[in-house]
Every structure is written in structure tokens, then in C-alpha cells.
Amino acid sequence: MNTPTVWFITGCSRGLGHALAAAALARGDRVVATARNPAHLAALAAAHPDSCHALELDVTRPEQVGTAAAAALAAFGGIDVLVNNAGAGLVGAIEETTETEIARCLDVNFLGALRVTRALLPHFRARQGGHVIFLSAAAAIANYPGFGIYGAAKRAIEGAAESLAQEARPFGLRVTLVQPGPFRTDFIGRSLAHAAAPLPAYEATRGKFARFLATAHGQQPGDPARAAAAILAAVDAERPPLRLVLGAYAHDKTRRTFAAAQRELDTWAPATAATEFPPA
Fold it and tell me: Is 2 or 206 the better-scoring residue by pLDDT?
């Protein structure tokens, strides 16, 4: 009989985090589900009283991260998979966003994920294994006007994850970046902040993107339950991917981005080669 996998998932109140927690519990795994307001986890915990442990966690509060990590380890005796899912978007042109708005976006999407990961790395190192999953975004594949700060935060976590995958490989830790396209969650609804002082100069760029998001909300093609199934498959795989692209939109966007980068690389190859010292 296989031992149930133990998950620690941030941002479980709704969206992909909630769908992943529900899918893991449905197959008999154990889940430490966290949210800023644990009342939002009451139904999930009540449905799985022996296998779901709900905790309060705001990843932007360092004192809560340490407490939650210790409580998670105590709940089930260890953690197999950490999913850094908590996050929030910010729409605003670079000039429009304030220092406070930028700091908040970086804190929840980048620093928060690092805090939780670093809190559990000693455990993974001691047990010589585990899996850390970071929820990235299509904005990290190629960004949009008006999503500069949010996309930067996701690219920052991708850079950190690439290093972590190499640093932790000797003690058996696996790392996966999930790059979802548009999924039918509240991410572009309640979870989306807007710069408080928009400028008319950016209505044709940031404004157009914001209007698109407003019309797309509730019409996203991605199914969170199917995304959860794909993440479960990656965790179960003998060789999980470093990057897991989810949805046709993100898949096509990745192919187009790679093709454009290759064309640009080839076009500028002579200038690239001309920057080195000539052979002796």
C-alpha cells in the first residue's frame, strides 16, 4: 500500500490552489491547506477531517510563515510537496504604479514564495527529497502592457527556481514551475489590483489590456480541475518537468515566443560574435 503524499499548499481559498487541494484529497493524499482567512477553508477541512489540516497564512508576514511551516510539519510528520500558489495580480503601466503597489506585488508573488520555500528547505534537505512547485504565469513567458510589475515578479521567481533546482538536486529535491494560461478562477476578478492613479497616456496600452481582462473574466478556457490533474501527474512522474505549461493559450504563446527569440538571435548573430577579443 502506497503512503499518501503530504502537500503544503498556499492560497487555497479558491482558484487553482483550492482545486489542487481538493484533487489531492480526493485521491487519498493529505493536505495542509493555507489561506489568509482560514474560514474560507472550513468546508474543505470538514469534508476531509482526517486528511486536511487548515492553517492561517499570509505569505507577506514572515512571522506567520515560520509558524505555519512548523505547524504543517507537526500535523502529518513531514511534507512531500510544497506548492507556492498564493499570489495576486497588478494592472498598471510602469510609470503609473507607486512604490507601495510595486512592493506589495513583489512581496506576495516573489518574496512570499521564497519565504515559504526557505522555511521548508531544511526539512527537505534533512529528509533528502521532496518537490517544490511554483505557480508562475503566462506573463513570465512573454509579458503584456500594464502587467510589468506582476510579470517581473513571476520572472523573478522563475530565476530563483532555476537556481534552486540545481542547488537542491544533490539532496533529491525536485522543482517545477507551472505556467498557466487563462483559467476560470478569480485571478482577474477579486484577486486583481489596479494602479490607483492611472494616466490617460496609457489608455491605448495598459487601458486596452485592462479592458480585455474585464471582458475575459468568467470566459477563460482553462479548467482548474484539469490543471490540478496535470500538476498531480507531474508530481507523480519519475522525471517531472522544470516547466509545466498549462492550456492551449500558454502552449501556443510559448512556441511563438521561442520562435521570435530564435529569429532575433539569428539576425543579430554577427553583432554578438563581434564582441569578443580576436584570436591570438
Answer: 206
Would you call 142 exposed, middle or buried from its count of C-beta atoms within 10 A (0-12, 13-18, 19+)?
middle
To the query of whether residue 253 is one of the catalytic residues in this protein, the response is: no
Cell of 131: 518537490
Q: Where are the domains of the chain?
A: 6-252
Q: What is the mean pLDDT of residues 136-148?
A: 96
From the candidates 136, 202, 249, 253, give the one annotated as an active-site residue. 136
What distances in angstroms separate CA 202 from CA 52, 93, 95, 138, one per listed residue?
46, 7, 9, 22
Catalytic residue among 150, 163, 191, 208: 150
**Residue-level pLDDT at 204:** 97
Contact assessment for residue 228 and residue 163, using Cβ atoms and an 8 Å cutoff: no
Which CATH superfamily groups domain 6-252?
Answer: NAD(P)-binding Rossmann-like Domain (3.40.50.720)
Q: What is the pLDDT of residue 1?
A: 52
Q: Which of 172, 7, 3 is CA-nearest to residue 81?
A: 7
Please identify which of the residues 154, 163, 202, 253 carries the catalytic annotation: 154
pLDDT of residue 18: 95
Separation of alpha carbons 203 and 118, rounded Å? 40
pTM above threshold 0.85: yes
Q: Are strands 52-56 and 6-9 parallel, antiparallel or unpaired?
A: unpaired
Please give the pLDDT value at position 77. Answer: 94
The predicted model gives 18-40 an average pLDDT of: 96
150: annotated active-site residue: yes
Q: Which residues of 201-251 form beta strands (DSSP E)?
A: 243-246
At 210, the amino acid letter reads A
